[in-house]
């Protein structure tokens, strides 16, 4: 018997006393921003308004230790998942596989206190913002 035949029989036997599901999904969120434009703006030390005119509204803006940061993010992915569950001697066993990640790809713009762009980074937002420290909130005075 061929390996493909054995796989088909194995999947068929697995499906008898169990639950098997396959899923295809597509996620599209926000329009990609031109990374090259962000780099050119950083090379020119562009002001905040020039950046907003070129790239539109960011997803998030927050204070950093020496200025502020603006993030732009987007995702356009398709993928599939497979889930199988079976009860072996009254013990439930479950297997799940997902072929995609849901991390946003994007751009982080780092501005100085005077609203001049000093650096643009691109990549997965969870990675390129990991080392950016947010300024802690100031205590509220009564």
What would your notes on this structure say?
The structure is a single chain. The chain is of the alpha+beta class and 142 residues long. The chain has one domain. Helices cover 24% and strands 44% of the residues. It has 4 helices and 6 strands, in the order αβααβββββα. It has helices at 3-15, 35-43, 48-55, 125-128; strands spanning 18-29, 60-64, 67-88, 91-98, 105-112, 117-124. Strands 1, 2, 3, 4, 5 and 6 form a 6-stranded antiparallel beta sheet that branches. A hairpin with a 2-residue loop joins strand 3 (67-88) and strand 4. The termini are far apart. 13% of the residues are buried. The model has no long low-confidence stretch (mean pLDDT 84).
Quick tags:
single chain, 142 residues, alpha+beta
Write the layout of secondary structure elements.
Blueprint: H1 3-15, E1 18-29, H2 35-43, H3 48-55, E2 60-64, E3 67-88, E4 91-98, E5 105-112, E6 117-124, H4 125-128
Antiparallel strand pairs: 1-3, 2-3, 3-4, 3-5, 5-6
Beta fraction: 35-45%
Number of extended strands: 6
- The rough form would be described as elongated
Number of domains: 1
Segments where pLDDT lies below 50 for 5+ residues?
Answer: none
User: What is the H/E string?
Assistant: HEHHEEEEEH
- Mean of the pLDDT scores? 84
Describe, in short, the structure shown.
This protein has 142 residues and is α+β, with helices and mostly antiparallel strands. The protein has 4 helices and 6 strands, in the order H-E-H-H-E-E-E-E-E-H.
